[in-house]
Design a protein that fits this description.
CATH superfamily of the largest domain: Phosphoenolpyruvate-binding domains
Keywords: Cytoplasm, Magnesium, Metal-binding, Methyltransferase, Pantothenate biosynthesis, Transferase
Structural class: alpha/beta
CATH topology of the largest domain: TIM Barrel
Catalytic activity: (6R)-5,10-methylene-5,6,7,8-tetrahydrofolate + 3-methyl-2-oxobutanoate + H2O = 2-dehydropantoate + (6S)-5,6,7,8-tetrahydrofolate
Pathway: Cofactor biosynthesis; (R)-pantothenate biosynthesis; (R)-pantoate from 3-methyl-2-oxobutanoate: step 1/2
Distance between the termini: 70 Å
Bound molecules: 3-methyl-2-oxobutanoic acid, sodium ion
Number of strands: 8
Shape: elongated
CATH architecture of the largest domain: Alpha-Beta Barrel
Largest sheet: 8 strands, parallel, barrel
Strand content: 5-15%
Function: Catalyzes the reversible reaction in which hydroxymethyl group from 5,10-methylenetetrahydrofolate is transferred onto alpha-ketoisovalerate to form ketopantoate.
GO cellular component, one term: cytoplasm
Number of helices: 11
Amino acid sequence: SSLTSKRSIPELQHAPAPLVMVTAYDFPGGRHAEAAGVDLILVGDSLGNVVLGYDSTAPVTLGDMIHHARAVRRGAPNTFMVVDMPFGTYHTGVTDAMRNAVRIIQETGADAVKMEGATTEILQVVDNLTRNGIPVMGHVGLMPQTATAQGGLKVQGKDDESARLTLSGALALEQAGAFSVVLEAIPSRLAKLITGRLGVPTIGIGAGVGCDGQVLVAHDLLGIYEDEEKKIAKRYAELGRAAREAIAAYAAEVRAREFPAKENSFVMKDEVLGKLY
Ligand code: KIV
Ligand code: NA
């Protein structure tokens, strides 16, 4: 057994129960995830959508990812942390990808990086990074960084050609050295088939119950955004409503001069106050 509670890659790969992964983007997010006892934290480039307010992940930079992942790590020192390589940081050749992955590992304390796709170029990068000791999580199915080229944010692998492409991509990622593969937005029967074919764990989002693990975007499961139902996520809380109601209650009390109350205020002795007059 290890000195810390952080799971090792072999432990993750041989876990008896489904792996639990959740995204985090800052110190409290890391704290909550670690306290809840998840197996892996993903600092996802969904950062762009749920934290930075962009309408896609494409604008997210390496600097953004490093800045946020460092904060997550401070909140979750003992949880296996995967950091997404953002769009453009692993597409200009193996050397650039290696340099950017090294920055993520060194500057954030990440245990692994994640990247989308299984093209020849991406597979070369995965092979190179893993040979050089940087664990890589793959990602196939719906790939938000290049969703425009996939025809929008759509379920993948529904026809036989697309299904074959998703399966062969996942298999090739394992061959290239990926220690795990995310399957996003594919039919559950295809995800189950891929999971059966792969030696390394699959982690699903919108991919059914037959994967080796599940991942959700924290903001989705926490219900941070009101009236935003997503088929692939379940809302386990309504923190968006709670936040709005709390801020509105504060505003009402300030306007009614009910806050701050006596117990929130500091006292001064009469004689000290008297000297001021
Ligand atoms: O960026 C992200 O949050 C992800 C998960 C949805 C897998 O890549
Ligand atoms: Na991502």
